[in-house]
UniProtKB/TrEMBL annotation:
Record bears the keyword Transmembrane helix: yes
Broad class of where this protein is predominantly found: membrane
Membrane topology: Multi-pass membrane protein
Xref: InterPro entries: Aquaporin-like (IPR023271), For/NO2_transpt (IPR000292)
Lineage: Bacteria, Bacillati, Bacillota, Clostridia, Lachnospirales
Protein name (record): Formate/nitrite transporter family protein
Keywords per UniProt: Membrane, Transmembrane, Transmembrane helix
Subcellular location(s) per record: Membrane
Leader sequence residues: none
Record-annotated membrane-spanning stretches: 5-23, 29-47, 68-88, 112-132, 144-163, 183-205
Single GO molecular function: formate transmembrane transporter activity
Family: Belongs to the FNT transporter (TC 1.A.16) family.
A cellular-component GO term for this protein: plasma membrane
Organism domain of life: Bacteria
Amino acid sequence: MKEKWISSIMAGIYIAMGAMVYLSISDKLAASLFFATGILLVLNLHNRLFTRVCPLFAYNGSYRPGDLFIAWIGNGIGTALVAILIHFTRFEAGILGRIEEIVIPKLADSPVSLTILGLFCALFVAFAVFVGGIRQKQGTFAQIFYVWLFITAFVFCGFEHIIADMYYLSVYVLNFGTSIGDVLKVLLFVTLGNVIGGIAAGYFVQNLERESHENRK
């Protein structure tokens, strides 16, 4: 159990690290490219990132419902720790403008929009996990390329990743404050979208592999 919590907290820290780099770069494409560093750390170190656990939960049952809960809470703790530490540095002042640009539209968004944007994010992350795993046989470079491609795509499009959002919201609340209702709205509906998209992708890939196996018989 202890290892699960540590792995989940570390995954949140990695995503927050990628988000910090993203916030530090003004060019949207370049920022999207470098956000992927956090996801690459998670995948290569096999940490329990919520949006990685969801598709694998559906795909092969390697995770249980309780693991989803631990991953979500642990990831949130990791992102909050980073936000709190950065709050006491000069680094934070340089990203507050970007934080406002990113968080204010989320807080004003509708539940339906947040859910759908979360769903598409989860699809990109899930396929990064699955395609990256398949391409691993072709070498590390091929695996990194495909993971980077999928992650860059969802970040560039502005789809909603709940763990990245936890970091953005933590920084925003520490500096500007907001209503608990707006924060809970974002957390709830982005999580819902991430769960739906991740589990759907997991079952989709599972069925594809089953059909492929049956056709080879």
